[in-house]
Amino acid sequence: MSLLVIRAEEIRELLPVADCIDAMDGAMRAFSAGEVTIPARTIAPLADDRSFFILMPGEMLSPAMYGAKVVGLHPDNPARGRPAVQGFVVLFDSHTGNPLALIDGAEITALRTASASALATRTLAREDASSHGILGTGVQAASHLEAINCIRDIRSVRVWGRDPDKARRFATEHADRLGQDISAVDDPAEAGACDIVSVVTNSPLPVLSGAWLQEGAHVNLVGAHEPDDREADTAAVTRSRVYVDSLEGALSEAGDILIPISEGAITRDHVVDEIGNVLLGNAPGRGDPRQITVYKSLGLFAQDLYASASLMEKALKAGKGQLVEFP
Questions:
Q1: What is the pTM of this model?
Q2: Using an 8 Å Cβ cutoff, are 30 and 124 in contact?
Q3: Which domains does the chain have, with CATH numbers?
Q4: For residue 271, what is the enclosing H or E element?
Q5: Closest among 169, 159, 110, 163 to 131, alpha carbons compared
Q6: What are the angstrom distances between the C-alpha of 29 and each of 1, 185, 203?
Q7: DSSP code of 79?
Q8: For residues 29 and 279, is the Cβ–Cβ distance under 8 A?
Q9: Whole-angstrom Cα distance, residue 120 to residue 24?
Q10: Scanning 42, 88, 256, 272, which has the fewest C-beta atoms within 10 Å of its C-beta?
Q11: Which of 285, 297, 321, 288 is nearest to 216 (CA)?
């Protein structure tokens, strides 16, 4: 029995962003249709009161696999030059229980998270959206830059970060690499006034104001994952049609939504539906080019599962990864 090990440096080669967006389309449709089993994830705080151990299990029907993502979330890691998310995804054969693959968790998380935002953006953003504002300068900022470029003709990118020097380095590095108009801005309102806005920070307090959002904008809220944390203020949510990856998860974990509910600014009905139901034709998407849409991402193991299954298939076909005899 062999276990396929896929390292971080092989993931982007084997699963380009465009292919991962397609995998996310399948994942979100399957999740909303009840075709994947995703039990509640376990998030255990660690002794430093900032880090978490996270276990995310699940099963898919086709191909017949189950598995889990087992990772640590250490928010201080990027300052040390290490990914905030570290660990792995493990896949098993549903019929036999044979372990099939072990896949780097940090890289697959970065890729699938940005690809899920790109899928939501492709579904909800105006077709003529051409500017992208990014609040944040970490791994997800880079991943969202690439992913959004895949689904819209982006002519200008405005990046804001709490560290202006880091934002400038980010803009210069990626502008040189992509040959794209990317500039750092000192005022977050400039990034918040773009056609597409991706908020990818680890801030527990709002960094995006609803007053900055322009008519017809689409917003991806990605960084906050706790009921008491949020990246967008109440006005940003009340002005918008809100969509989520999981209704159950959003209404228990998403501070961006729960805090405005607790304030009485919105009710639970303000959330239109899951993005998967929009894709299935069971819920309305954007109905007016002037509307503001928000996609609140918490992350689902269905996304990791579908991305990992696609990655494993591609690796086996290409003869990539390392086959290890197990046990």
A1: 0.93
A2: no
A3: 2-109+301-325 (3.30.1780.10), 118-296 (3.40.50.720)
A4: strand 271-274
A5: 159
A6: 33, 37, 30
A7: G
A8: yes
A9: 10
A10: 42
A11: 288
DSSP 310-323: HHHHHHHHHT-SEE
3-state SS class at 230: coil
Token pair 């790109």 in the structure block, residue: 118
- Helix 139-151 to helix 105-124 angle (10° resolution) is 40
Q: Which phi and psi angles does 126 have, rounded to 5°?
A: -60, 145
| 175-228 pLDDT tens trace | 999 999 999 999 999 999 999 999 999 899 999 999 999 999 999 999 988 899
DSSP character string of 205-229:
S--B-GGGPPTT-EEEE-S--STT-
How many C-beta atoms lie closer than 10 Å to residue 139's C-beta? 20
Block residue for tokens 């940005």: 114
pLDDT at 55: 94
Instruction: Give the residue with greater pLDDT, 81 vs 246.
Output: 246
Give strand pairing partners of 294. 219, 242
